[in-house]
Amino acid sequence: MSLSSSRSSQHIDADQINYVALSLAPFSWRRRMAERLHAGDSPARILDDLSAQQPAGREIDRETLASRAKAALARAKHADIALITWGDPIYPAALSAIVDPPPALWVRGTAAALSGPAVAIVGSRAGSPYGLTVAERLAADLAARGIVVVSGLARGVDSAAHRGALAAPGATIGVLGSGADIVYPAEHRSLARDIEAQGGAIVSELVPGTPPQPQFFPLRNRIISGLSRAVLVVEAGEKSGSLITARCALDQGRDVLAVPGNVLSGRNRGGHALMRDGAKIVESADDILEELGMPAPARTGATAPDDPVLAGLPAGESCDLEAISERTGLTPTRLLPKLFDLEMRGLVKRVGGGRFARV
Amino acid sequence: MSLSSSRSSQHIDADQINYVALSLAPFSWRRRMAERLHAGDSPARILDDLSAQQPAGREIDRETLASRAKAALARAKHADIALITWGDPIYPAALSAIVDPPPALWVRGTAAALSGPAVAIVGSRAGSPYGLTVAERLAADLAARGIVVVSGLARGVDSAAHRGALAAPGATIGVLGSGADIVYPAEHRSLARDIEAQGGAIVSELVPGTPPQPQFFPLRNRIISGLSRAVLVVEAGEKSGSLITARCALDQGRDVLAVPGNVLSGRNRGGHALMRDGAKIVESADDILEELGMPAPARTGATAPDDPVLAGLPAGESCDLEAISERTGLTPTRLLPKLFDLEMRGLVKRVGGGRFARV
User: Fold this and answer.
1) Best residue in B340, B342, B343, B347 to probe A by mutation, most A CBs within 10 Å?
2) Other C-beta atoms within 10 Å of B286: how many?
3) From A271, which residue of chain B is nearest by alpha-carbon distance?
4) The CA-based dihedral angle spanning residues B54, B59, B65, B68, taken in that order and rounded to the nearest 10 degrees
5) Are residues A100 and B354, on separate chains, in Cβ contact within 8 Å?
6) Which chain B residues have a beta carbon less than 8 Å from that of A336?
7) Which residues of chain A neighbour B275 with C-beta distances below 8 Å?
8) Residue A308's pLDDT band (boundaries 50, 70, 90)?
9) At CA B21, angle to CA B19 and CA B23, rounded to 5?
């Protein structure tokens, strides 16, 4: 069976409509829809089968879904928003690996940014000066190393992260809990434009024109983590939405990282709880890159081969204080602080029974 | 063989002199001395045997050691400093368990405080306002629960911890790197007096009159941790002496705890490194008591048995969104944020495949 190129192109359009229709389908479909998407079924077939399974009295009007999808595509074209569907080769690989991938993504800006190595930075909407400074600095340092910074374009830590990445200068992605053409909060419209202008993207799984609603934000969070190799939490209280993003990251097998902070303000209770549960402690961008297995610049000056105490410790042999004292000519009382210092620098270890060895 | 009580009392005096003489013996004896102390040998026998093992040219003058010990005892009597030796029943049990216990302890104040349940709080001598506030507050909260707070009477975090414990009001112990009658820094003399006056103690293994010297402080640190069930580090830079205390605690099988803080100042790099290595993260005194297995007041209001969503989740059974939706009458979009909230509160967990269960 040979297909003409025009027929093929028509097929792609029909697929697009069907993927968008799927994204408009009842929420209760999501799990079964995801299974079918992962299984490679066509969107038309998934729509057919799941429609047929709807219980009596809750029938789905396929025509209405299709016309809403067409209207969304028209609105997107008008607003210069690109559509990436599950079937597209440029659908981001990291996001395709999650259990419940969006069938359709609406993108303003550079779609290729969605496939860069990415780290999410999320945190309190009411970030302290400390939290905002840390988010901005870490985002800038990551972006300077070519990491795409993903966040939620919210007030506080999110926007500080976006701004830090832009300052690097680097690419950053804002994932919305509304249509890609509805920037919320409105004061971040110019930030969104800067993100678009600088090789980044504004992304949503919701059709253009969708207003922000509370229930969209937890779902949006799974996309923030789904696009990223790791999620870094900067200032999250006990009930912060950032903890949902962290939970999503864990469910998705992504690393969860957290920045420690003040214990008196309560602003870091969520982040510290994550650390207790095993989140990596981040003080610098190097810590993040190391966690991702990306090379950080080598540190120099860590070894001191001509240190007289080290020289008095033969490699692969442990010595007691008296022996080291004899080799170095230093009295044990002078030696001990030096050994402690070498121990703290990781060059010497105590091997029990008062003996020391080179590391 | 019957001993008269006067003879017995003479014996105790001789033992005291011998234990102090041991504490004045060459540092290189320390390991063998500790083994013999743990084995239960008498101090006279240990002195005899270790003296006999000294290499030619490094003979020990037993008479000089004994006369220095007697002088120390006389000075102690004059300065109202009590001597506790390894042989005394009131030698602190926690300290006796370490590998290298001091043969003699000089104590000003209430010796019984050395046997209370104790937690050490140590940190930077140049503590920030944050570090000092945290140390003072945690010390006060621990002391209010009857925990003895141990520290090093140094500037910064140490003295903040002592002051916090005193304010509770509670007992606190200052361990010195000089004789118990030489308070360093001198500006802490009145703090030391307050500690004595309020059921606490000033302690040293060094004979009275010993001036502070750098090599004494790492050794002093093993006593701080040795007297304590746990060591809490509040603000420690990368090369802080507090890290030596933490290392001692690990060697001694004590818990190491750390308070997180600002990552921009560098003041917490040591503490954060400890946390990476497994130190427990402390935000409150309750965290410490929990770590020590001591009961903290029960929290209330954690459960919400009449929450409609929880009620819609039968115990021991997992449900998908549709099922919960049917039971609760809530639409999936309304349900999901509530489930996220319950999940964050630890009352509901996701069990994979989009199913939820009560915890």
Assistant:
1) B340
2) 15
3) B260
4) -140
5) yes
6) 27, 215, 218-219
7) 260, 275, 281
8) confident
9) 75
What percent of chain A has a predicted confidence (pLDDT) above 90? 71
Task: Compute the nearest-CA separation of B350 from chain A (Å).
Answer: 9
User: Is residue A170 a contact partner of residue A164, using CB atoms and an 8 Å limit?
Assistant: no
* ipTM computed for the complex: 0.75
Written in H, E and C, the secondary structure of chain A is CCCCHHHHHHHHHHHHHHHHHHHHCCHHHHHHHHHHHHHCCCHHHHHHHHHHHCCCCCCCCHHHHHHHHHHHHHHHHHCCCEEEECCCCCCCHHHHCCCCCCCEEEEEECHHHHHCCEEEEEECCCCCHHHHHHHHHHHHHHHHCCCEEEECCCCCHHHHHHHHHHHCCCCEEEECCCCCCCCCCHHHHHHHHHHHHCCCEEEECCCCCCCCCCCHHHHHHHHHHHCCCEEEEECCCCCCHHHHHHHHHHHCCCEEEEECCCCCCCCCHHHHHHHHCCCEECCCHHHHHHHCCCCCCCCCCCCCCCCHHHHCCCCCCEEEHHHHHHHHCCCHHHHHHHHHHHHHCCCEEECCCCEEEEC
CA–CA distance from A44 to each of A64, A92, A285 (Å)?
Answer: 15, 22, 45
Contact A325 B28 (CB under 8 A): yes
Q: Which residue has the tokens 């703090």?
A: B191
In chain A, which residues have their Cβ closer than 8 Å to the Cβ of B270? none
Q: Could you tell me which chain A residue has the CA closest to the CA of B257?
A: A276
Using CA atoms, how far apart are residues B15 and B34, in angstroms rounded to an integer? 16
Is residue B277 scored above 80 in pLDDT? yes
Choose from A210, A263, A284 for mutation: most chain B CBs within 10 A: A263
Q: What is residue B154's three-state secondary structure?
A: coil
What would the pLDDT profile of A268-306 be if each residue is shown by its tens digit?
999 999 999 999 999 999 999 999 988 655 443 344 456
Backbone region of residue A137 per phi and psi (left: phi > 0; alpha: psi in -120 to 50; beta: other values): alpha
Separation of alpha carbons B7 and A343, rounded Å = 48
Contact: B325, A262; criterion CB under 8 Å: no
Structure tokens at A255: 């690393």
User: Which helix (DSSP H) or strand (DSSP E) does residue B254 occupy?
Assistant: none
The answer to whether the CB atoms of A333 and B27 lie below 8 A apart is yes
B43 by DSSP, 3-state: which?
helix
Q: What are phi and psi of B65, to 5 degrees?
A: -60, -45
CB contact under 8 A, B260 and A244: no
What pLDDT digit, counting tens, does each position of B148-192 carry? 999 999 999 999 999 999 999 999 999 999 999 999 999 999 999
Are B338 and B312 in contact, with CB atoms under 8 Å apart?
no
Q: Which of B269, B235, B281 is nearest to A276 (CA)?
A: B281
Contact B284 A268 (CB under 8 A): no
Helix (H, G, I), strand (E, B) or coil at B346: coil
In 3D, which of B39, B40, B30 has the Cα closest to residue B102?
B30
Count chain A–chain B contacts defined by CB atoms under 8 A.
122
Residues constituting chain A: 359
